DNA sequence: CGGAATGTGTTGCCTATGCAACATGGGAGA
DNA sequence: TCTCCCATGTTGCATAGGCAACACATTCCG
């Protein structure tokens, strides 16, 4: 429906935002599994039939919400077009500042009381994106035959990043984004990136 | 437009709620005076022209929001039809529980950094309502000629109640609604109500 | 077992809202 | 002073979304 300009209509953006918000809040309250489409639409003050004009079901809503989150990150130059160092230092710092904009979202995705389904989904997506990002950035990279395969390294980095993020979100007195980015860089750089030879 | 059933349309309720919410948040951020209709509608994700389908201007929005808040309180039996003791103990306790549902609202109305205009408006409205309530509840009440006139007493109670509420909202470790209601009862009861002779 | 209750998807019609354009007015700066 | 800019209100037309009703699947309970 209205693929092209429909996205620009204020009503469309508002409806989708309300539904996504209700998805997160609802998951916090009763968990993703127990959440019905009715619950979501009631909370969002959106008619149930309207839900189906945008999404196939609650899984589709989740999926699209994830995608839009990633788009925000990519537009911010955090993943994707950015410079290579970008993802290591300034990029990660930017990421964390972004995260502080959506605290509920990330808490449900990664925090201590994260929803099981959402958390798994998020990590899967993140792994895929990180893999794609590295393959695009270092298209012909190779690693020493003695070391683990590249994909294993990337996957490990992505997973470690998610877990570290979850830990960070739960700290009482969180360290600064800068400090945390530095730690994360140390943790991940040696695992995988140091052995790469960027083709550029 | 659509006075009767229009109120029931989900879109209408949603739009009004979003605008009222944006009013409060916007006031917190930059103050009521500096807030423009554009600011409000942008934040609420509502078209500016739609704003004027519901409200005359930002003052009208504020006025109607106040009225709806009071309606909620009255529906809850806190003011109005309630028993006389209602407003003194159980009623006040209920009121405070209600208040904890709209923390932002009351903080802007009464808290330490309250907006000057909103705060004044709210106190005015509250005084009027309290006056009307007492006159309706004790239609023929009289007071000792040596003591201050009834209206002065009522006004004082209303004002004191607002200030006490503001104080309560700013406490780090807020006392329970029950405890606070008890204090407030002691403060206000002797001022005015103790000398009344309810007609009913 | 059988029925009541509840959730999921879907459809057609009506309406609230978005959008674009306009006139108006006030404030800031050359 | 004369612009330029921005906020306010207002309007006509296009459309997203509300509502009601439906068929169907499911759970639950006597």
Largest sheet of chain A: none
Give the averaged pLDDT of chain A, no decimals.
78
Oligomer: homodimer
Radius of gyration of chain A: 18 Å
Q: Which chain pair has the greatest contact?
A: A-B, 7 and 8 residues
- Percent of sequence in beta strands of chain A: under 5%
Describe this structure in words.
Chain A is an all-alpha fold. Chain A is 64% helix and 0% strand. Chain A is built from 9 helices and no strands. The longest helix of chain A is centred in the middle third of the chain and has 22 residues, at 116-137. Chain A is globular. Residues 1-6 and 81-88 of chain A have low confidence and may be disordered. Chain A binds a DNA duplex (30 and 30 nucleotides) through residues 1-2, 6, 9-12, 15, 36-38, 46-50, 52-53, 56-57.
Features:
globular; 9 helices; disordered N terminus; 200 residues; DNA-binding
Give a topology summary.
Two copies of one chain form a homodimer.
Chain A: H1 10-30, H2 37-44, H3 48-54, H4 58-75, H5 90-99, H6 103-110, H7 116-137, H8 150-170, H9 177-189
The first copy, chain A, binds a DNA duplex (30 and 30 nucleotides) through residues 1-2, 6, 9-12, 15, 36-38, 46-50, 52-53, 56-57.
């Amino acid at each position: 429906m209205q693929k092209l300009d429909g996205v620009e209509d204020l009503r469309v953006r508002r409806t989708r935002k309300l539904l996504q918000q209700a998805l997160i809040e609802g998951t916090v309250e009763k968990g993703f599994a127990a959440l019905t489409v009715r619950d979501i639409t009631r909370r969002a003050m959106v008619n149930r039939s309207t839900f189906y004009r945008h999404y196939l079901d609650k899984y589709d809503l989740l999926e699209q919400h994830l995608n839009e989150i990633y788009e925000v990150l990519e537009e911010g130059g955090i993943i994707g077009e950015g410079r290579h160092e970008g993802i290591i230092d300034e990029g990660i710092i930017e990421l964390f500042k972004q995260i502080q904009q959506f605290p509920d979202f990330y808490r449900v995705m990664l925090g201590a009381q994260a929803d099981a389904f959402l958390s798994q989904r998020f990590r899967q997506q993140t792994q895929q994106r990180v893999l794609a990002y590295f393959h695009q950035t270092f298209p012909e990279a190779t690693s020493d035959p003695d070391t683990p395969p590249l994909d294993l390294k990337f996957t490990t980095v992505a997973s470690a990043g998610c877990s570290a993020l979850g830990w960070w979100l739960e700290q009482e007195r969180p360290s600064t984004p800068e400090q945390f980015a530095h730690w994360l860089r140390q943790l991940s750089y040696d695992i995988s990136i140091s052995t790469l030879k960027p083709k550029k």
